[in-house]
Design a protein that fits this description.
By secondary structure, the protein is α/β, with parallel strands linked by helices. It is 30% helix and 31% strand. The chain folds into two domains: 108 residues, 2-Layer Sandwich (GMP Synthetase, Chain A, domain 3), CATH 3.30.300; 98 residues, Ribosomal protein S3 C-terminal domain, CATH 3.30.1140. Helix 2 runs antiparallel to helix 3 and helix 4 packs antiparallel against helix 5. The longest helix is centred in the N-terminal third of the chain and has 22 residues. It is found in: Plastid, Chloroplast.
Length: 218
């Protein structure tokens, strides 16, 4: 079953929670869902354009959105705050203004907060982004996966699995390569597992990166 369902959705209510907290009528559900996706894309585009280091690294672990009748609260969990131009005056305010202009939200206020992640390389999204940058720089995929596992092992994880699929190294036939260290019990609901799927566009085509990180068993 671990290969047929998203590991995060499989564990909702036990070891995982939703990244969006709001209630909506059935006829307006799709509109609110698209709004969440637009907010996340807008934040990622802003971070790419206004980061301090021009390395292409966003460092965003996840974005949580909480909606009320008159308020939209966005919490950005970021691993490397120095990548953002947070030191400049009005950095977060400028981001709020840009998002409000796109949505034309008059009745609801927007509040954005930034929270630093203690162990950034323990977050699958940041690890996947690191591997993507290595692949774009023509680093061997095996070396990139092993280096990502070494970084994750420094955060006291009990197991990690990395998988890359597509035209690896520009080969004509697409294939799947994966590597695993430690235990990754995908079929156990009480196992706390973080997962992400990341897409990288290269000159050879699209590659897919999947990462599973096993923390503990409750």
């Amino acid at each position: 079953m671990g290969q047929k369902i998203n590991p995060l959705g499989f564990r909702l209510g036990t070891t995982q929670h939703h990244h969006s907290f709001w209630f909506e009528k059935p006829k307006n559900y799709s509109v609110s869902l698209q709004e969440d996706e637009k907010i996340r894309n807008c934040i990622k585009n802003y971070v790419q354009k206004n980061r301090r280091i021009s390395s292409g690294f966003e460092g965003i672990a996840r974005i949580e959105i909480k909606k009320r009748i008159d308020l939209i609260q966005v919490i950005i969990y970021i691993g490397f705050p120095n990548l953002l131009i947070e030191g400049q005056a009005g950095g977060i305010e400028e981001l709020q203004v840009n998002i409000q202009k796109k949505f034309h939200s008059v009745n609801r206020r927007l509040n954005i907060a930034i929270t630093k992640v203690e162990k950034p390389y323990g977050q699958p999204n940041i690890l996947a982004e690191y591997i993507a940058l290595q692949l774009k720089n023509r680093v061997s995929f095996r070396k990139a996966m092993k280096k990502a596992i070494e970084l994750a092992e420094q955060t006291d994880t009990k197991g990690i699995q990395v998988q890359i699929a597509g035209r690896i190294n520009g080969k004509e036939i697409a294939r799947v390569e994966w590597i695993r260290e430690g235990r990754v019990p995908l079929q156990t609901i009480r196992a706390k597992i973080d997962h992400c799927s990341y897409i990288i566009r290269t000159i050879y085509g699209v590659l897919g990166i999947k990462i599973w990180i096993f923390w503990e068993e409750q």
